[in-house]
């Protein structure tokens, strides 16, 4: 008996992993990708990016990353890996295909895109967490004479040499970009509005993301209590760096709020050394200057918005409260949803790391989709 017809939307890590696993279960798989290559979001990241998760826990199903890449592969190596993965499993995405709608029809699915319509038994949305760039709009911003760019547009620090630059947001991208800039700019400030949980890249020589075993053994709240003294000893308090102190631990903030902790790759050392100066949230822009919540006013030549991305799937799925929450995010990822045959892969921040979660989701989705009957 022929396997199910599956359409996977997105040719990033999650989409490729799902395609490989579905093919392994006998499905006929088509991958639709709006860009012109696999791993498009990785190609758009800043050049200095390295994985924040260990290589040993970042490979996709059926293919490990080369050992000689070291513990934390680079952006370029990740792109090479995704290309090789697609080749290994015979995945040939249809590039330049923008999916506009996914609708239930005749016991299956119709996927509408700019090249026509695909009929499918199974649809996997694997479009990633890097959706539309969030661009805050502060009073007076339109009159700012310098350059304002989102972190997704940042490639290298070189064009900003000698300037005064403000980085807004202290997630992993914001921290990395601030460190890169600190080597070449006249001044780099970091605007941090809310509390940030910071964890070291490694504890006792073990990558921090490998310690999710504690969460599985004890639950995330107890895991936070167990690791809190170790984190304080290793890093100190956020207050030591002029940062707001979070009320929740890193696991609780991730599980309950979907906020990924900062994995420190040198940002705290740069702050301690005075190469990066922490500022509070922004109140408004005044000409070429920024006024902060504490009343301080500083002039900048450029502002980098490391303010994240918004994932809203309502334009794709329409009114779908059974499968999407009020913000348009999936209620269930990596498993069966309320709409049989529809799945979401790696669309929720994971303590395992997104690459490892992509593999876990892909295996679970493929196994469920291969069942001869869905309830």
From TrEMBL:
Annotated GO MF terms: flavin adenine dinucleotide binding; N,N-dimethylaniline monooxygenase activity; NADP binding
Assigned GO CC terms: cytosol
Domain of life of the native organism: Bacteria
Keywords: FAD, Flavoprotein, Oxidoreductase
InterPro entries documented for this protein: Auxin_biosynth/cation_transpt, FAD/NAD-bd_sf, Flavin_mOase, Flavin_mOase-like
This protein's name: Trimethylamine monooxygenase
UniProt organism field: Tranquillimonas alkanivorans
């Amino acid at each position: 008996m022929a396997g199910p017809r599956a359409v996977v939307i997105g040719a990033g890590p999650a989409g490729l992993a799902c395609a490989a696993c579905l093919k392994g279960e006998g499905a006929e798989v088509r991958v639709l990708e709006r860009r012109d290559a696999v791993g498009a979001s990785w190609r758009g990241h800043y050049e200095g990016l390295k994985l924040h998760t260990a290589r040993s826990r970042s490979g996709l199903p059926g293919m490990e990353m080369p050992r000689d890449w070291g513990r934390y592969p680079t952006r370029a190596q990740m792109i090479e890996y995704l290309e090789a993965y697609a080749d290994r499993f015979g995945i040939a995405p249809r590039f330049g295909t923008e999916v506009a709608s996914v609708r239930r029809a005749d016991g299956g699915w119709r996927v509408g895109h700019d090249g026509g319509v695909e009929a499918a038994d199974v649809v996997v949305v694997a479009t990633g967490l890097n959706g539309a760039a969030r661009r805050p709009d502060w009073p007076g911003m339109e009159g700012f004479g310098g350059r304002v760019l989102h972190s997704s547009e940042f490639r290298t620090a070189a064009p900003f040499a000698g300037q005064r630059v403000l980085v807004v947001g202290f997630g992993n991208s914001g921290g990395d970009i601030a460190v890169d800039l600190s080597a070449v700019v006249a001044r780099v400030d970091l605007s941090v509005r809310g509390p940030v949980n910071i964890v070291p890249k490694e504890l006792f020589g073990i990558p921090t993301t490998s310690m999710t075993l504690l969460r599985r053994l004890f639950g995330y709240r107890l895991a936070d209590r167990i690791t809190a003294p170790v984190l304080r000893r290793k890093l100190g308090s956020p207050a030591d760096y002029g940062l707001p102190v979070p009320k929740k631990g890193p696991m609780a903030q991730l599980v309950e709020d979907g906020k990924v902790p900062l994995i420190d790759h040198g940002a705290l050392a740069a702050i301690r050394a005075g190469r990066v100066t922490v500022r509070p949230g922004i109140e408004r822009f005044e000409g070429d200057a920024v006024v902060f919540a504490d009343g301080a006013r500083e002039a900048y030549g450029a502002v980098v918005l490391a303010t994240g991305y918004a994932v809203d799937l309502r334009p794709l799925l329409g009114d779908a409260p059974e499968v999407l929450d009020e913000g348009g995010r999936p209620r269930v990822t990596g498993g069966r949803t309320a709409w049989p045959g529809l799945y979401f892969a790696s669309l929720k921040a994971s303590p395992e790391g997104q690459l490892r979660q992509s593999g876990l989701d892909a295996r679970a989705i493929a196994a469920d989709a291969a069942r001869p009957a869905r309830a």
